[in-house]
Amino acid sequence: MRTLLLIFLFAITGFSSAVSQIIKDPTTWQYEVKQTGEQTFDLIFRVSLKEHWHIWALEPGGDGMQLPPEFIFENNAAVTLLGGIKEKGKKITGVMDGVDGEVSWYADKIEYTQSVRVTENTVITGEHTYQVCDDKQCLPPKTLSFQFEINQLSRPAVAANTTAEGDSSLTETTTSPISDPQIASQPLTASTASSTQEGEKRSLLWLFLMAFGGGIAAVITPCVYAMIPITVSFFTKRSKNRKEGIRNATWYSLSIILIFTILGVLISLVFGANALNNLSTNWIANLVFFIIFVVFGLSFLGAFEITLPSSWTSKTDSKAGLGSFSGIFFMALTLVIVSFSCTGPIVGPLLVIAGQGGIAGPAIGMFGFSLGLALPFAFFAVFPGLLNKMATSGGWLNQVKVVLGFLELMLALKFLSNADLAMGWRLLDREVFIAIWIVLSVLTGIYLLGKIKLSHDDASPKNLYGQEYVSVFRLLLAIVFFSFSVYLLPGMWGAPLNGMSQFLPPMGTQDFIAGKSGGTTHPSADGPVKYVQEMKIYEPPVVVQSGLVTYFDYEEALEAARKHNKPLMLDFTGINCVNCRKMEAEVWSHPEVMKRLMNDFIIASLYCDYDKIKLPAEKQFFSEPLNAQVKTIGDWNEHLQASKFNANSQPFYFFIDGNENKLVEKGYGYDPDIDKFIRHLDLAKENYRKLHP
User: Model's pTM, two decimal places?
Assistant: First the structure.
């Protein structure tokens, strides 16, 4: 999920055009088996990196676009994995422009360990995928195969396989290709980073503040708000004087904080902090969150009540009459259980976000949430007289509940969209998503104006003349929802809606764009055909909005260049290549650039990280330039770039004619200088005319 794709902002500007060259893999991998028990072993992966290069941490943080190392073990009946991969090294956390939160990585050396239990002598095989970056670019993800030989269970097994620099001395395993679509994500970063523990503290501070705000917001939910008078009455009866009242209120608040914090830590220890982080991108987890949000939304709208077993509440409530501190603690536990139906939708996503901070993340997140939730209870316990000035629970709380129900349904769509994009179902295209949001937003506004009544709503208040009226606050809130609907409406015809882009499906899923006849989204006899249906979903906004026709297959683009007598621009790009999106948004979108691209060139967008289409077995081969097996369309595009143009980073633009003659000797890498790019385009066009007068 956490799953959001935001454009990185570069701190270094004026970057000159990159020189076309192969960048050798700056890593050296070593593999070792270490026996730790009679049948248990540690499989150790050691990696050394050249200076200025780094590899992402297993929990990289950031905005979800960083590619952490992934270790895939082939099925082996004699082997049981014990827990997950552990990393050991000097973790660096840095702030990168345009990334929401800090990112974590390792430089120099790092060690990964997987513990296993084996029942017989065997060979453990698999593949590991990783990505390395420097301060200007990231190399495409690389996959190497590995094997560990377990030959003596009674004494430590000795097996060390050392790869040459950027090379694997092990046989490439092709029987179990990596199929996880997340493996292919290829962020490309070029920004300044400050690697300090202070950055980590800032990240946790932001998590704490966000969680604290969630706790405060939870107080106004119906099931929590209604508990305030009850609990304060409980304290009033137990406290003989002001001093004792303050002490009891403090212990009550600390009990709430303790319960929620322990809950967060236990979840992390049981499921693992990395597992919580992975929930934001896993399609099954996103479907689960979608169902949960829909269920809670329908409950808030009055379809049914969500309650925990009454025996749970009865047992804890009965303990509330015990001695001073134990009774107060069980009263706090009662609050936590009773408020579950309202706090659950807040706590669940909070834990996913908090999981990015390891074990400390959930602990600090739940501490902040519980502190925000506990403070009002402590305040009113100390000053019970203020309760008389509070609005009684009733009609207004029902209205809060219904509005929350509509919001829950709107947020549920984001989780469904994440799963939809990951699996390619095309159930929730961009215009469908926007249409549902518009309808829900309009219905919320109508409800706030009192034009819709639900089963648990009270009668509307009446003025002096016996007429029903709407409060000013509800009127203003209705205006907000109606205005939001109007803002969303142009998105039905392809407006970018930049303010909501992080929530909406990509523009490539939009079936209709105003003023665009179809362009790349509908294959025709005179346009791109191959891979269009699979790849159109990933087209960047500038391509979709302008109607720019792009090809996704090299051979098909060559044929088009010959047919139309135009130069061919090869756009070596990536689905999640951030610098590629920056070039498209800032350079391609310029009117003079777009005019040239549309009128003077054939464009081929060759995605080097697309792994959803596997090559037939007979067409798979080992690439010498990449030193890796070519298994997918993305692998083939990457091999093409390396073998023909001696480069392997994206974005990179090369200009050739239909006969594969280079029009400009050097390629054009990431450089957002518009004038320079225009000069490069003009040079390619001029050289083409010289070759083809």
Answer: 0.45
Q: Using DSSP, state whether 392 is helix, strand or coil.
A: coil
For 138-179, write each residue's pLDDT tens digit. 787 888 889 898 887 654 433 334 333 333 333 333 322 323
Per DSSP, 644 falls in state H
Using CA atoms, how far residue 249 sits from 213, 240, 244, 366, 426, in Å, is 21, 13, 9, 20, 53
Cβ(683)–Cβ(596) below 8 Å: no
- Helix 242-271 × helix 227-238 angle, to 10°: 130
- Which residue type is seen at 148? F
Per-residue pLDDT band at 396 (split at 50, 70, 90):
low
Whole-angstrom distance, CA of residue 95 vs CA of residue 104: 9
- Under a CB-based contact definition with an 8 Å cutoff, are residues 134 and 52 in contact? yes
CA distance 359 to 377: 28
Which residues face 106 on adjacent strands?
55, 91
Name the 3-class secondary structure at 58: strand
What is the full DSSP assignment across 300-346? HTTS------HHHHHHHHHHTTSSHHHHHHHHHHHHHHHTHHHHHHH
Confidence of residue 383 (pLDDT cuts 50, 70, 90): low
The strand pairing partners of 30, in sequence order, are 46, 162
What percent of the chain is modeled with pLDDT above 70? 67
520 band by pLDDT with thresholds 50, 70 and 90: very low
Strand, coil or helix: 678: helix
**Residue located via tokens 């980590």:** 200
Backbone φ and ψ for 599, nearest 5 degrees, come out as -100, -30
Residue 51 phi, psi dihedral angles, 5° rounding = -60, 140
Cα angle for residues 175, 552, 425 (degrees, 5° grid): 65
Whether 420 and 287 have beta carbons less than 8 Å apart is answered as no
Rounded Cα–Cα distance for residues 329 and 554 (Å): 68
What is the DSSP code string of 70-105?
EEEEPP-TTEEEEEEEEEEEEEEEE--TT-SS-EEE
Phi, psi of 94 (to 5 degrees): -135, 160
Write the CB contacts of 56 (distance below 8 Å, at least 6 apart in sequence): 66, 67, 68, 69, 103, 104, 105, 131, 133
* Contacting residues for 372 by C-beta, under 8 A, at least 6 apart: 211, 212, 213, 214, 215, 216, 217, 218, 219
Work out the burial of residue 424: count CB atoms within 10 Å of its CB; fewer than 13 is exposed, 13-18 middle, 19 or more buried.
exposed
Q: Is the dihedral of CA 230, 232, 233, 235 positive or negative?
A: positive
Residues 6+ positions from 127 with CB-CB distance below 8 Å: 71, 72, 143, 144, 145, 146, 173, 176, 178
Tell me what pLDDT residue 604 has: 94
Question: Do 689 and 675 meet the contact criterion of CB atoms below 8 Å apart?
Answer: no
324 or 313, which is more confident: 324
Phi, psi for residue 565 in degrees, rounded to 5: 55, 55
**pLDDT tens-digit readout, 242-269:** 677 677 777 878 888 888 778 766 765 6
pLDDT for 200 beyond 60: no
Mean pLDDT over the full length of the chain: 74
Give 568's pLDDT tier (boundaries 50, 70, 90).
Answer: very high
CA dist 222 and 394 (Å) reads 9
Q: Is the pLDDT of residue 411 over 70?
A: yes
